[in-house]
Amino acid sequence: MFRSIKMRNLFLAPFCVWAGIFIFVPLVCIIYYGLTDMSGNFTFDNLAIISHREYYSSLQLSIILALVTTIVCLLLAYPLCLILVDKAKSVGTIIILLFVLPLWMNTLLSTMAWQTIFERDGILNQVLRLLSLPDMTLINTPTAVVIGMIYNYLPYMVLPLYVALSKIDKSIFEAARDLGANSWQTFSKVTLPLSLPGAISGITMVFIPSLTTFAISALLGGSKLLLIGNVIEQEFTVEYDWHLGSALSIILMIFIIINMVITLVFDKSTKEDEN
Amino acid sequence: MISRLKTIYLAIIFLFLYAPIGVLIAQSFNASRYRGHWTGFTLHWYESLFTKERILDALSNTISIGIVSAVVATLLALITCLALREVGKKTRAMFMSVANVPVLNADIVTGISLMLLFLGMGMRLGYGSILLAHIVFNVPYVMLCIMPQLLALDKSFYEAALDLGASPFKAFTSVVLPELRPSIFAGFLLAFTMSADDFIITYFTRGAGVDTLPTEIYSELKLGIHPEMYALSTLVFITIAIFVILFAINRKANFKAEDLV
What we know:
The complex is a heterodimer.
Chain A: H1 5-34, H2 45-48, H3 53-86, H4 89-100, H5 107-118, H6 123-130, H7 142-167, H8 170-178, H9 183-212, H10 215-220, H11 228-237, H12 242-274
Helix pairs in contact in A: 1-12, 3-7, 3-9, 5-7, 7-9, 8-9, 9-12, 11-12
Chain B: H1 2-28, H2 44-48, H3 53-85, H4 89-104, H5 107-120, H6 127-152, H7 155-163, H8 168-197, H9 200-205, H10 213-221, H11 227-260
Helix pairs in contact in B: 1-11, 3-6, 3-8, 4-6, 6-8, 7-8
């Protein structure tokens, strides 16, 4: 579409400058801060701090809660999407829109609404008392944080999964059935492998934000339940230890890179299967 | 039996997704300032919303940052995608993965790294730094919307326009741009939505005295949210819901029309 390579490169130049300043340099900044001490000397001490009990246990808790959230989202979204792709396309689209609609309510406000529901004298317990059932203490527990994360990130699992499932040619199912597969075999040998790419992008889109959130855990987990995101936030806004905060961010990035590599490997293997 | 189970399953998930929204909407009509205690119906918060300057300031910041960052991100994404159409597959994939870094990275890391950059450049944190940060994370979203449609575009129409004597600019605006309009529009809307809802990156790149709605909500959380905030959120949510329903009805009508043909 360009008359010369020069012209094309002229169009590409702004992005190169942009990416250099706003994508590459910030990462260099964070690595620099993470690997130096207050006086600017090179050190691994900031990274080593993760082996301290308090930091290690909040990292561990973050990973466990993020895994639980991702698995529950997958288990909730899969049957949901299977039901939706079965419906007529017009109806399916409308239901999907209704599922995405809550995303436009501000994350912090809807999380706070969960706080109102879960509190000691909150709506849930008021309902339970009306039914003369015993109270439930959910606020400031890991369960509350997980429910809050599932609430906020479920649409990110539903969307890619729905797209992947609705792309599957319906005649493949008929072919499988004609060839004598029962419904379980059709599901495990046809539907599941074909929807895998959607599931994998859903897993990434849920796992990373739940691993790194600090707002949801601050609202529903109280001050004692610290995720790694809360620890990093406090290093920057309360302790003013940027070096330590950056080092913890580097550790988070390592997890993100591992997640990306796994995604790439899966993506490649499913693409090769298709060929 | 099974179809009954399916309906029940859908209903439970709907209840789960809309329960907090119901609570927030109810809260906006609640005479009590305190959460979870219903003391009567009132429209008072909707009136006093228009006198709360902090909330109105945050709202106007959110809207102006959303629009400006979406426009700049769309322009930058568009010219970059046009150039990327003409490079090799490998180069394009490389550029796309670099562009994607802010999407794939955790918000907290992006926010902190941008804060370090802005402070390192000697910039004062404030409206400008929030705006720049929003453009940074918006560009990849718009590129992800535009690139597929641009790659699917048939180049021969553009060349035909050139052969018929159109200038490259004229050929671009009258042949390529109309084809790309849906994806440019989708990218713009996605960028605006991402900007308006972002909390974490704004939180780290904002300066004292400048707030968007999400950061204003976060700072109110400690002392108790002003009920006017519920009123505003209810208004925003209902406006968007009406748009979505209109869109859905329109779509359904289209589907029916297709069936008839």
